[in-house]
Design a protein that fits this description.
Layout: E1 2-5, E2 24-29, H1 31-34, E3 38-42, E4 50-52, E5 73-80, E6 86-87, H2 93-96, E7 102-106, H3 116-120, E8 124-125, H4 127-135, E9 140-143, H5 154-161, E10 165-168, E11 182-185, E12 195-197, E13 201-204
Parallel strand pairs: 5-7, 6-8, 7-9, 9-10
Antiparallel strand pairs: 1-13, 2-3, 4-10, 4-12, 5-11, 11-13
Length: 205
């Protein structure tokens, strides 16, 4: 078994989506003179690697902490979608994508993480692909992008209205291209919020 970390590190002033508050991670206690170390984190739930749940963009009153844990762990599927400005459905996905899986889309765009290009020039999913993934009843769609779409966020709404969670700002997806079978584990914090930071991991058999 091998574990592959798919998460960006949480740190002070880490990249955030344009318009979101700055993340602040500060040490507030020190072993000398306080006899212990402690840190304080101030962040929105969409900084770094995180999960969007329905409350984020659709009429849902259920916090992410209330969804079953089974929603955030499943067999994984990696789709190589590099060099596509619009990520479209192709016939091969009918066989590759399994019901109740977590689908990861590898664009390679994580190399631009934190830059203007990452937020303003990222690829987007085509609606036909989004509808296909809904029909396949996948649990979650993960991307090495800040978003699967842009305003008015129709792909976001399509997924979230159908209880398909969105796992954003992933990294290291290229390591899964030849990995064979793997499981994706991305639990949210047990937090009363619309979404949550997560430590996303692939467990390769």
């Amino acid at each position: 078994m091998k574990l592959i970390d798919l998460s960006h590190e949480i740190k002070d002033k880490m990249p955030v989506y344009p318009g979101d508050i700055e993340t602040k991670l500060l040490q507030i206690k020190y072993l000398e003179p306080d006899q212990h170390n402690n840190h304080k984190l101030v962040t929105n739930m969409h900084a770094g690697t995180h999960i969007d749940s329905p409350m984020h963009l659709v009429d849902c009153q259920q916090y992410i902490s209330k969804f079953p844990l089974e929603s955030f762990i499943a067999e994984g599927c990696i789709l190589d979608v590099r060099d596509q400005a619009i990520i479209k459905l192709i016939p091969e996905y009918e066989t590759l994508v399994k019901e109740d899986s977590i689908v990861l889309l590898y664009t390679g765009f994580d190399k631009y993480y934190g830059t203007k290009e990452y937020y303003e020039a990222h690829p987007c999913l085509d609606m036909e692909l989004g509808q296909f993934l809904i029909a396949k009843k996948v649990k979650m769609v993960g991307i090495d992008l800040p978003s699967p779409d842009r305003y008015p966020f129709e792909i976001h709404k399509l997924f979230l209205m159908n209880n398909v969670y969105i796992l954003e700002n992933l990294t290291n997806l290229g390591q899964l291209l030849n990995a064979g079978q793997f499981e994706v584990i991305a639990f949210p914090l047990k937090i009363k919020a619309d979404s949550s930071l997560t430590r996303a991991v692939a467990r390769v058999r």
